[in-house]
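Checklist before submission:
- one chain only
- standard amino acids only
- sequence pasted in full

Submission:
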Amino acid sequence: MEKSEFTLEFEKPLRELESQLRRLQEISEQSNMDVSDEIDAINGKIEKTKREVYSGLTTWQRVQLARHPSRPTSLDHIANIFTGFEEIHGDRLFKDDPAFVGGPAFLEGRPVMVIGQQKGRDTKGNLRRNFGCPHPEGYRKALRLMRMAAKFNMPIISLIDTPGAFPGIGAEERHVAEAIAVNIREMSLLEVPIIAAVIGEGGSGGALGVALADSVLIFENAYYSVISPEGCAAILWKDRKFAPDAAEALGLSGKSLLEHSVVDEVIEEPFGGAQSDHQKTSNNLKTAILSHLKRYESLKPAELLQHRYDRFRKLGVYSEE
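Returned file contents:
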């Protein structure tokens, strides 16, 4: 179980009760008093409050959980799911981008290529990882690894967690949009299974640049969207304070995305969010990845490419009466 001092606004009633419980336990230990009845009463309140807090989460609250600083990152999932991971650095064109990690690993004894967008855990880590916002060289490194995977017939596992590609001058000078576009084009032609999983934030083209996959999975408290709620609110309402309204309007939650066939499975998180139990979260992700990989093991390359083509061609299709 992971512990975090970070508290979201809607979690405060729960944290206050947990603080009361700790104080009672300290009093009991220090004064040798029997306060078991009071402890049982607070435990009951905690369970009731936990159900109230996490059973009816709004879309905006799920976005906040997707951004939780203690949420498991790509490297956390890689450590929990895969064995023998060897990280490969650099795009062989410019430099290495720490906002992307990747390399060969074993999944249940089978060689795979795993790539992931990586955030930091604290300020220093986030500065090093550019807050999970990749530069063009990050996408080119990812493509280098995916081409290597295709060469050696290794399935590709893509872990997505980014607010979006970095929009700075340097990234534009090195053609970040072109790098994302090339990845989308090349991923459509790779003759190996590709499984993408949105583990936190799935922001715009920054996510799509490594998400053109045979199956796209998403955690129940992650989001996948063409724009952030704040960005949408700034455009439509001229004020970022309307981000909760924008989150609802965008339909960026797992349930809504599944209904529209944008994703293929919503992965359950531990009660209270992925940050509450990293290992259980990773186990759920591993089960989903193995299940979807099994679907494509028997497909010939031409069948795999046709399935991938059909999957994306049907997105956005609707009829009017």
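Reviewer check: The CA atoms of residues 28 and 145 lie 57 Å apart.
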